[in-house]
Amino acid sequence: MDTHTDLHQAAVIDGIGRHLATAQFETTPEGYQRLLDWLRSHGDILAVGIEGTGAYGAEVARFLTANEVTVVEVDRPDRKARRDNGKSDPIDAYGAATAVLSGRAGGIPKSRNAIVEAIRALRVVRKSAVKARTQTINQIRTLIVTAPSAVRDKLRGLSARELVDTLARSRPSGELNDPACAVRVALRRLARRYQQLDEEIKDADKEIGPLVAQAAPRLVALPGVGPETAGQLLTSAGDNPDRLRSEASFAHLCGAAPVPASSGRTHRHRLNRGGDRAANNALHTIVLVRMKYDQRTQEYVARRTAEGMAKKDIVRCLKRFVAREIYRHLPHVTHPTKPLPQTA
User: Fold this and answer.
1) Which residues are within 8 A (CB) of 221 and not within 5 positions of it... i.e. 6 or more apart?
2) What residues form DSSP beta bridges with 49?
3) Distance CA 301, CA 303 (A)
4) Where is 51: in which H helix or E strand?
5) What is the percent of the chain with per-residue pLDDT over 70, rounded to a whole number?
6) Could you please report the per-residue DSSP string of 260-310?
7) What is the pairing mode between strands 48-51 and 269-270?
8) Neighbouring C-beta atoms of residue 239, cutoff 10 Å
9) Is the pLDDT confidence value at 203 over 80?
10) How far apart are CA 325 and CA 56, in angstroms?
11) Inter-residue contact 94 to 22 (CB < 8 Å)
12) Please, which residues have CB within 8 angstroms of residue 343's CB and are 6 or more apart in sequence?
């Protein structure tokens, strides 16, 4: 199935890959039901491959899963395949079906129907507010740099919080055609915007924190893991982390799986620059906190430093250890009996 905003293109193939039929269906509850009836009219449904289960295909994936249909996540075809086969909705739909039948596609999509999806939605708003707040304080500082001396000199040496509070309480006077007055007005508006965004972020934290603790109490109890990093890791894993077959799969998802970089007499691994970069950033934050406050991590860093390992390689190893520990504390995961390493 090739998914879009208003219409989904579906295609059916049989067990040996022969093309049987293709049709479009509206992205409404009635359209989803017609789609299911149409699929069943061709025989037993082995599986449905959907391109875009994290975007346009999220709701149809939920609908089919609720009706006991096996849904498989299909990646977008690579550029070479598109050049060779052409591009159209029916071609993409048949390509998705072929990918499932051949085994090239076998990923289980996120279910997106429980508490982690609620956390994800709230974190989207918080993340955009944090980005806007950072942009606002940067704009304030830039305006101060170019402001007339009468404005700039009064704001020297103030911290970000003092600067915002001072500007928000200010009462500019004069004509707006005066650059000094216009700058004061602009700075007050930006300061009040910063305060509004700060309150929005605090409200989001009050909402997200209890949800994260409810979803994974064992996860937030780990050293160095807070509501923000735990929320991101839960979001990356989804409401059904059992779809990740092992802790190695989770590490690969987070971009923490080591990549061989050996040559000749040099035997080493390098950082993995793939995977979910937001999840990788969460692991990085946890590692930095542990390097500062966790004794066993500090001992590990000291030992590997004495062995001649570079700091970035030590951080890479710690990310991998943390990914293993995080995986074992995700909800609904059958945890292996192998003990955790004593190095992170």
Assistant:
1) none
2) 72
3) 5
4) strand 48-51
5) 94
6) E--BTTB--EE----S-HHHHHHHHHHHHHHHHH-HHHHHHHHHHHHTT--
7) unpaired
8) 22
9) yes
10) 33
11) yes
12) 296, 300, 317, 321
Instruction: Note the pLDDT tens digit of each residue in 224-252.
Output: 999 999 999 999 999 999 888 899 999 99
Q: Both ends of the chain: CA-CA distance in Å?
A: 44
Q: What 8-state DSSP symbol labels residue 223? A: T
Q: How far is residue 330's CA from residue 61's CA, in Å, rounded to a whole number? A: 23
pLDDT digit string (tens) for 48-60? 999 989 899 999 9
Q: Which residues contact 296 (CB under 8 A, 6 or more apart)?
A: 342, 343, 344
Looking only at the bridges linking them, the beta strands covering 71-74 and 48-51 are parallel
Alpha carbons 49 and 35: distance in angstroms, whole number: 14
Q: Which of 55, 71, 72 is nearest to 63 (CA)?
A: 71
Q: Which residues contact 317 (CB under 8 A, 6 or more apart)?
A: 304, 309, 343, 344
3-class DSSP state for residue 325? helix
Whole-angstrom distance, CA of residue 71 vs CA of residue 125: 29
